[in-house]
Amino acid sequence: MSKVTLYQFEVYDIRSDGMTLSRSWGTREAVVLIAGGRVVASTAVEVDQSAVESESELSGFTRIGFSPYKRQGFQTQV
Predict the structure, then answer these.
(1) What is the dihedral sign for C-alpha 54, 57, 62, 63?
(2) Distance CA 9, CA 1 (A)
(3) Are the CB atoms for 10 and 38 separated by under 8 Å?
(4) From the CA atom positions of the chain, what is the Rg in Å?
(5) What pTM did the predictor assign?
(6) pLDDT at 28
(7) Other CB atoms closer than 10 Å to residue 55's CB: what's the count?
(8) For 33-42, what is each residue's pLDDT tens digit?
(9) Is 18 helix (H, G, I), strand (E, B) or coil?
(10) In this predicted model, what pLDDT tens digit does every residue of 43-72 receive, in sequence order?
């Protein structure tokens, strides 16, 4: 399967009038499309391409709450 590099990123939060860490992850290319979005380079992680949206306006981003460190799917071994 194809791999993609994802990053956590900061975006402007109007409520706090400052930058805040997004609750989703994105590709570098997708993050730069967000007004004021900044990649946190130290968080780079390679994951399967299926982790990101591909056919919507959210193309290049994960769902909210995604964690590349959490096991995905069902437990298959004890």
Answers:
(1) negative
(2) 25
(3) yes
(4) 14
(5) 0.79
(6) 92
(7) 6
(8) 876 789 999 9
(9) strand
(10) 999 999 888 877 666 688 999 999 988 765
Picking from 54, 50, 40, 47, the residue whose alpha carbon sits closest to that of residue 7 is 40
Q: Where are the alpha helices (DSSP H) in 1-78?
A: 28-32
- Exposure string (b/e) for 32-52, b if CB count within 10 Å is 16 or more? eebeebebeeeeeeebeeebb
State CA 1 to chain mean position distance: 19
- Cα-based torsion angle of the residue sequence 40, 46, 51, 52 in order, rounded to the nearest 10 degrees: 50
pLDDT score at 50: 87
Question: CA of 49: how far to CAs of 18, 35, 37, 53, 76, in Å?
Answer: 31, 24, 21, 9, 22
Helices (H), 6-76: 28-32
Which pLDDT score is estimated for 17?
Answer: 94
User: In a 3-state reduction of DSSP, which class is residue 3?
Assistant: strand
Give the strands of the sheet with 18-21, arranged side by side: 18-21, 3-13, 38-48
